[in-house]
Design a protein that fits this description.
Chain A: One of its GO terms (molecular function) is sodium:proton antiporter activity. Chain A: InterPro entries: PhaG_MnhG_YufB (IPR005133). The structure holds two protein chains of two kinds. By secondary structure, chain A is mainly α. Helices cover 82% and strands 0% of the residues of chain A. Chain A is elongated, with a radius of gyration of 21 Å. In chain B, strands 1-3-2 form a three-stranded antiparallel beta sheet. In chain B, 61% of the residues lie in helices and 11% in strands. By secondary structure, chain B is mainly α. The chains are: A mainly alpha, B mainly alpha. At the A-B interface, α1, α2, α3 and α4 of A face α1, α3, β1, α4 and β2 of B.
Protein backbone atom coordinates (compact mmCIF):
# COMPACT_ATOMS: atom_id res chain seq x y z
CA UNK A 1 0.00 0.00 0.00
CA UNK A 2 1.44 3.34 -1.02
CA UNK A 3 1.54 6.58 0.94
CA UNK A 4 -1.12 8.20 -1.29
CA UNK A 5 -3.58 5.43 -0.52
CA UNK A 6 -2.98 5.73 3.22
CA UNK A 7 -3.44 9.53 3.19
CA UNK A 8 -6.54 9.24 1.00
CA UNK A 9 -8.17 6.60 3.17
CA UNK A 10 -7.40 8.59 6.30
CA UNK A 11 -8.95 11.76 4.82
CA UNK A 12 -12.12 9.91 3.73
CA UNK A 13 -12.48 8.36 7.19
CA UNK A 14 -11.86 11.75 8.81
CA UNK A 15 -14.57 13.34 6.65
CA UNK A 16 -17.06 10.56 7.34
CA UNK A 17 -16.56 10.98 11.11
CA UNK A 18 -17.41 14.67 10.80
CA UNK A 19 -20.50 13.81 8.73
CA UNK A 20 -21.68 11.64 11.63
CA UNK A 21 -20.96 14.40 14.14
CA UNK A 22 -22.83 16.89 11.98
CA UNK A 23 -25.98 14.78 11.86
CA UNK A 24 -25.68 14.05 15.59
CA UNK A 25 -25.52 17.80 16.21
CA UNK A 26 -28.82 18.24 14.39
CA UNK A 27 -30.45 15.98 17.00
CA UNK A 28 -28.65 17.31 20.07
CA UNK A 29 -28.93 21.07 19.63
CA UNK A 30 -31.94 22.99 20.99
CA UNK A 31 -32.87 25.52 18.27
CA UNK A 32 -32.45 26.42 14.59
CA UNK A 33 -29.48 28.72 15.13
CA UNK A 34 -27.38 26.23 17.09
CA UNK A 35 -28.28 23.43 14.69
CA UNK A 36 -27.08 25.59 11.83
CA UNK A 37 -23.71 25.97 13.59
CA UNK A 38 -23.03 22.24 13.74
CA UNK A 39 -24.58 21.42 10.37
CA UNK A 40 -22.61 24.02 8.41
CA UNK A 41 -19.18 23.61 9.95
CA UNK A 42 -18.97 19.85 10.25
CA UNK A 43 -20.62 19.14 6.92
CA UNK A 44 -18.26 21.53 5.11
CA UNK A 45 -15.09 20.10 6.62
CA UNK A 46 -16.43 16.55 6.20
CA UNK A 47 -17.07 17.16 2.50
CA UNK A 48 -13.63 18.68 2.02
CA UNK A 49 -12.03 15.63 3.63
CA UNK A 50 -14.02 13.11 1.61
CA UNK A 51 -13.69 14.90 -1.74
CA UNK A 52 -9.96 15.69 -1.57
CA UNK A 53 -9.34 12.28 0.00
CA UNK A 54 -10.88 10.56 -3.02
CA UNK A 55 -8.63 12.63 -5.30
CA UNK A 56 -5.50 11.54 -3.42
CA UNK A 57 -6.67 7.94 -3.12
CA UNK A 58 -7.11 7.77 -6.92
CA UNK A 59 -3.36 8.43 -7.43
CA UNK A 60 -2.49 4.95 -6.21
CA UNK A 61 -5.76 3.14 -6.80
CA UNK A 62 -6.53 3.92 -10.46
CA UNK A 63 -3.06 5.35 -11.29
CA UNK A 64 -4.37 8.73 -12.39
CA UNK A 65 -3.35 12.24 -11.36
CA UNK A 66 -6.32 13.67 -13.28
CA UNK A 67 -8.73 13.26 -10.36
CA UNK A 68 -6.89 15.52 -7.93
CA UNK A 69 -7.30 18.93 -9.69
CA UNK A 70 -11.00 18.25 -10.30
CA UNK A 71 -11.64 17.32 -6.70
CA UNK A 72 -9.78 20.44 -5.56
CA UNK A 73 -12.00 22.64 -7.77
CA UNK A 74 -15.12 20.98 -6.36
CA UNK A 75 -13.82 21.44 -2.80
CA UNK A 76 -13.08 25.14 -3.36
CA UNK A 77 -16.54 25.78 -4.84
CA UNK A 78 -18.13 24.00 -1.88
CA UNK A 79 -16.01 26.00 0.55
CA UNK A 80 -17.12 29.27 -1.06
CA UNK A 81 -20.84 28.51 -1.41
CA UNK A 82 -21.67 26.55 1.77
CA UNK A 83 -21.30 29.43 4.27
CA UNK A 84 -23.36 31.71 2.01
CA UNK A 85 -26.27 29.27 1.95
CA UNK A 86 -26.00 28.92 5.75
CA UNK A 87 -26.08 32.70 6.11
CA UNK A 88 -29.15 32.97 3.85
CA UNK A 89 -30.97 30.23 5.77
CA UNK A 90 -30.21 31.61 9.24
CA UNK A 91 -31.16 35.14 8.19
CA UNK A 92 -34.42 33.91 6.66
CA UNK A 93 -35.14 31.99 9.87
CA UNK A 94 -34.63 35.16 11.92
CA UNK A 95 -36.75 37.27 9.57
CA UNK A 96 -39.65 34.80 9.68
CA UNK A 97 -39.73 35.20 13.46
CA UNK A 98 -38.31 31.94 14.80
CA UNK A 99 -37.39 32.62 18.47
CA UNK A 100 -33.96 32.08 19.97
CA UNK A 101 -33.42 29.37 22.57
CA UNK A 102 -34.89 30.50 25.91
CA UNK A 103 -31.50 30.33 27.63
CA UNK A 104 -29.78 32.57 25.06
CA UNK A 105 -27.97 35.43 26.77
CA UNK A 106 -28.09 38.39 24.42
CA UNK A 107 -29.79 39.53 21.21
CA UNK A 108 -28.06 42.60 19.78
CA UNK A 109 -29.70 42.20 16.39
CA UNK A 110 -33.17 42.80 17.82
CA UNK A 111 -31.91 45.95 19.57
CA UNK A 112 -30.38 47.25 16.33
CA UNK A 113 -33.56 46.57 14.34
CA UNK A 114 -35.67 48.35 16.99
CA UNK A 115 -33.29 51.33 16.96
CA UNK A 116 -33.56 51.56 13.18
CA UNK A 117 -37.35 51.32 13.28
CA UNK A 118 -37.48 54.19 15.76
CA UNK A 119 -35.21 56.35 13.58
CA UNK A 120 -37.39 55.67 10.53
CA UNK A 121 -40.51 56.74 12.43
CA UNK A 122 -38.82 59.94 13.58
CA UNK A 123 -37.74 60.64 10.02
CA UNK A 124 -41.31 60.39 8.77
CA UNK A 125 -42.65 62.90 11.27
CA UNK B 1 -13.54 53.01 -4.72
CA UNK B 2 -12.42 53.60 -8.28
CA UNK B 3 -12.91 51.02 -10.97
CA UNK B 4 -10.07 49.80 -13.12
CA UNK B 5 -10.16 50.12 -16.91
CA UNK B 6 -12.35 47.77 -18.96
CA UNK B 7 -9.41 45.98 -20.56
CA UNK B 8 -7.79 45.18 -17.22
CA UNK B 9 -11.05 43.84 -15.79
CA UNK B 10 -11.64 41.77 -18.95
CA UNK B 11 -8.15 40.27 -18.87
CA UNK B 12 -8.47 39.39 -15.19
CA UNK B 13 -11.79 37.59 -15.83
CA UNK B 14 -10.27 35.64 -18.72
CA UNK B 15 -7.26 34.60 -16.62
CA UNK B 16 -9.44 33.33 -13.77
CA UNK B 17 -11.75 31.44 -16.14
CA UNK B 18 -8.80 29.89 -17.96
CA UNK B 19 -7.21 28.70 -14.71
CA UNK B 20 -10.51 27.07 -13.67
CA UNK B 21 -10.69 25.40 -17.12
CA UNK B 22 -7.17 24.00 -16.75
CA UNK B 23 -8.07 22.55 -13.33
CA UNK B 24 -11.32 21.01 -14.62
CA UNK B 25 -9.82 19.33 -17.69
CA UNK B 26 -6.56 18.50 -15.87
CA UNK B 27 -4.68 18.02 -19.13
CA UNK B 28 -2.14 20.18 -20.97
CA UNK B 29 -3.09 18.95 -24.45
CA UNK B 30 -2.79 21.94 -26.90
CA UNK B 31 -6.22 21.28 -28.43
CA UNK B 32 -7.95 21.44 -25.06
CA UNK B 33 -6.04 24.60 -24.13
CA UNK B 34 -7.10 26.31 -27.39
CA UNK B 35 -10.79 25.53 -26.88
CA UNK B 36 -10.49 26.60 -23.25
CA UNK B 37 -8.91 29.91 -24.25
CA UNK B 38 -11.63 30.61 -26.85
CA UNK B 39 -14.41 29.76 -24.40
CA UNK B 40 -12.89 31.89 -21.63
CA UNK B 41 -12.58 34.83 -24.05
CA UNK B 42 -16.29 34.52 -24.94
CA UNK B 43 -17.55 33.98 -21.38
CA UNK B 44 -15.24 36.73 -20.10
CA UNK B 45 -16.68 39.22 -22.61
CA UNK B 46 -20.19 38.43 -21.40
CA UNK B 47 -19.55 38.47 -17.66
CA UNK B 48 -16.59 40.73 -16.78
CA UNK B 49 -18.87 43.60 -15.73
CA UNK B 50 -20.33 41.71 -12.81
CA UNK B 51 -17.23 39.66 -12.03
CA UNK B 52 -14.64 42.19 -10.91
CA UNK B 53 -14.14 45.86 -10.10
CA UNK B 54 -10.38 46.03 -9.58
CA UNK B 55 -9.17 44.08 -12.60
CA UNK B 56 -5.52 43.05 -12.82
CA UNK B 57 -4.68 44.85 -9.55
CA UNK B 58 -5.96 41.69 -7.84
CA UNK B 59 -2.84 39.86 -9.08
CA UNK B 60 -0.39 42.06 -7.18
CA UNK B 61 2.30 39.64 -5.83
CA UNK B 62 1.96 40.78 -2.22
CA UNK B 63 -1.78 40.15 -2.23
CA UNK B 64 -1.38 36.74 -3.88
CA UNK B 65 1.30 35.81 -1.31
CA UNK B 66 -0.99 36.80 1.58
CA UNK B 67 -3.89 34.89 0.00
CA UNK B 68 -1.74 31.75 -0.18
CA UNK B 69 -0.54 32.22 3.40
CA UNK B 70 -4.17 32.64 4.46
CA UNK B 71 -5.18 29.15 3.25
CA UNK B 72 -3.33 27.00 5.87
CA UNK B 73 -4.24 29.47 8.62
CA UNK B 74 -7.90 29.22 7.62
CA UNK B 75 -7.90 25.42 7.34
CA UNK B 76 -6.29 25.17 10.79
CA UNK B 77 -9.01 27.46 12.21
CA UNK B 78 -11.64 25.28 10.54
CA UNK B 79 -10.29 22.06 12.05
CA UNK B 80 -10.22 23.72 15.50
CA UNK B 81 -13.83 24.84 14.92
CA UNK B 82 -14.94 21.32 14.15
CA UNK B 83 -13.20 19.83 17.18
CA UNK B 84 -14.94 22.50 19.25
CA UNK B 85 -18.31 21.58 17.74
CA UNK B 86 -17.59 17.88 18.29
CA UNK B 87 -16.83 18.57 21.96
CA UNK B 88 -20.09 20.47 22.41
CA UNK B 89 -22.15 17.81 20.66
CA UNK B 90 -20.65 14.84 22.48
CA UNK B 91 -20.40 16.35 25.98
CA UNK B 92 -23.35 15.04 28.07
CA UNK B 93 -24.15 18.46 29.58
CA UNK B 94 -24.17 20.21 26.17
CA UNK B 95 -22.10 23.28 27.25
CA UNK B 96 -23.57 25.98 25.04
CA UNK B 97 -24.29 29.59 25.92
CA UNK B 98 -25.67 31.14 22.73
CA UNK B 99 -26.59 34.68 21.78
CA UNK B 100 -26.40 37.23 18.97
CA UNK B 101 -23.56 39.74 19.32
CA UNK B 102 -22.46 42.72 17.29
CA UNK B 103 -18.92 43.19 15.97
CA UNK B 104 -17.24 45.91 13.96
CA UNK B 105 -14.79 45.56 11.08
CA UNK B 106 -12.17 47.85 9.57
CA UNK B 107 -12.58 46.41 6.05
CA UNK B 108 -13.97 48.75 3.41
CA UNK B 109 -14.18 46.53 0.34
CA UNK B 110 -17.37 44.51 -0.36
CA UNK B 111 -15.38 41.45 -1.42
CA UNK B 112 -13.32 41.65 1.77
CA UNK B 113 -16.51 41.79 3.82
CA UNK B 114 -17.81 38.72 2.02
CA UNK B 115 -14.56 36.84 2.69
CA UNK B 116 -14.69 37.86 6.37
CA UNK B 117 -18.33 36.75 6.68
CA UNK B 118 -17.49 33.39 5.12
CA UNK B 119 -14.47 32.98 7.41
CA UNK B 120 -16.58 33.82 10.47
CA UNK B 121 -19.19 31.24 9.51
CA UNK B 122 -16.63 28.45 9.23
CA UNK B 123 -14.60 29.14 12.38
CA UNK B 124 -15.17 28.33 16.08
CA UNK B 125 -18.70 28.76 17.30
CA UNK B 126 -19.80 31.72 15.18
CA UNK B 127 -22.15 32.19 12.23
CA UNK B 128 -22.89 35.44 10.42
CA UNK B 129 -26.53 36.48 10.66
CA UNK B 130 -26.51 39.87 8.97
CA UNK B 131 -24.11 42.55 7.75
CA UNK B 132 -25.03 46.24 7.84
CA UNK B 133 -22.23 48.47 6.49
CA UNK B 134 -19.36 47.85 8.95
CA UNK B 135 -21.36 46.04 11.61
CA UNK B 136 -21.65 42.27 11.73
CA UNK B 137 -24.41 40.50 13.62
CA UNK B 138 -23.07 37.14 14.66
CA UNK B 139 -24.73 34.18 16.34
CA UNK B 140 -22.14 33.02 18.87
CA UNK B 141 -22.54 29.61 20.45
CA UNK B 142 -20.57 30.50 23.60
CA UNK B 143 -20.86 34.20 24.46
CA UNK B 144 -17.92 35.28 26.62
CA UNK B 145 -18.13 39.03 25.98
CA UNK B 146 -21.33 40.89 25.12
CA UNK B 147 -19.79 44.29 24.28
CA UNK B 148 -19.08 45.37 20.72
CA UNK B 149 -15.31 45.84 21.33
CA UNK B 150 -14.86 42.48 23.02
CA UNK B 151 -16.74 40.59 20.34
CA UNK B 152 -14.77 42.29 17.57
CA UNK B 153 -11.50 41.39 19.27
CA UNK B 154 -12.47 37.74 19.67
CA UNK B 155 -14.14 37.18 16.30
CA UNK B 156 -13.11 39.52 13.50
CA UNK B 157 -9.59 40.64 14.36
CA UNK B 158 -7.69 37.36 13.82
CA UNK B 159 -8.74 37.36 10.15
CA UNK B 160 -8.51 41.07 9.49
CA UNK B 161 -4.71 41.15 9.53
CA UNK B 162 -4.76 38.92 6.41
CA UNK B 163 -7.90 40.21 4.71
CA UNK B 164 -6.83 43.84 5.07
CA UNK B 165 -3.89 43.14 2.74
CA UNK B 166 -5.72 40.80 0.35
CA UNK B 167 -8.65 43.18 -0.23
CA UNK B 168 -7.38 46.73 0.46
Amino acid sequence: MSAAAIIGEFLVLFGAIFYVLSSLGLIRMPDVYNRMQTATKSATLGSLGVIVGVGIWAISNVNSYAWLPKTIVIAVFLLLTNPISAHALIRAAYKSGIPLWERSVVDKYKEALEREGKEMKEGEQ
Amino acid sequence: MGEASKISRYLYTVIVLFIIWMFLTSSLDPQELEIGLILSLIVGALTYEVFTEKGLANLHPKRVAYAIAYIPYFIWAMIMANLDVAYRVLHPKRPINPGIVEAKTVLKNDLGKLALANSITLTPGTITLDVKEDRYFIHWIDVTDESVEGASKAITEPFEKFLKVIFP
